[in-house]
Amino acid sequence: MDRMIAFGKGKIPADYRNITILGETVVTREKAMAYVLRTVNNPLLNCTLPELVDAYYDEATKEGVRADLALCQAILETGLFSFTGTVHPKQNNFCGLGTTGKGVRGCEFATAQEGVRAHIQHLLAYCRREEPRSKVVDPRYDLVHRIRMSKGLITKWCGLNGTWAMSPNYSEKIMTIYVAMQE
User: Is residue 2 very low, low, confident or very high in pLDDT (cuts 50, 70, 90)?
Assistant: First the structure.
């Protein structure tokens, strides 16, 4: 692993500000699966953990998104798939899509696969001019894509700080999961 710096109780890559949303996945599917299985105690999912990890790796790879980091984002957003926030497991919403305020539950998807696809498409709305290769299922894709086209694309994970989530350290939290996934 490259040089690390401390962040909170964990570590993040020293060059984390340069890590792009699009690109080659670094952590293998098998290593990601091992991390999820050893970290997530009681997942509240409408599919198995292996099916969810496979969905992330399949959907993200198809679109050129870093599958490992998208999965880390889902782990953060769902509280290790415990869904202790406003989103409920039956919504198959792994990224807080449409949760714009306290008590607003956000979007709901028929299957876990569709929810993962929406998550990946939402990332694409932030970082790529071209439309997704798959039929758009993210109901907020057009809105976000229009905004990003006028204000500028966000191509790096650190650009999601204060935009995807209001936390000024949002990407750093994702990166701590990413580093732990590699151990």
Answer: confident
Q: Which of 18, 20, 14 is nearest to 1 (CA)?
A: 14
Q: Where are the beta strands (DSSP E) in 2-159?
A: 4-7, 10-13
Residue 91: pLDDT band by 50, 70, 90 thresholds? very high
Could you tell me if 56 and 70 are in contact, meaning their C-beta atoms sit under 8 angstroms apart?
yes
Q: Which two tokens stand for residue 171?
A: 């990407």
Contact status, residue 106 vs residue 93, Cβ threshold 8 Å: yes
CA angle 104, 63, 116 (to 5 degrees): 35
Beta-bridge partners for 7: 10
The dihedral through the CA atoms of 28, 33, 39, 44 has a sign that is positive
Enter the DSSP assignment of 167: -
Total residues belonging to the chain: 183
Q: Can you state the angle between helices 29-39 and 170-182, rounded to 10 degrees?
A: 100
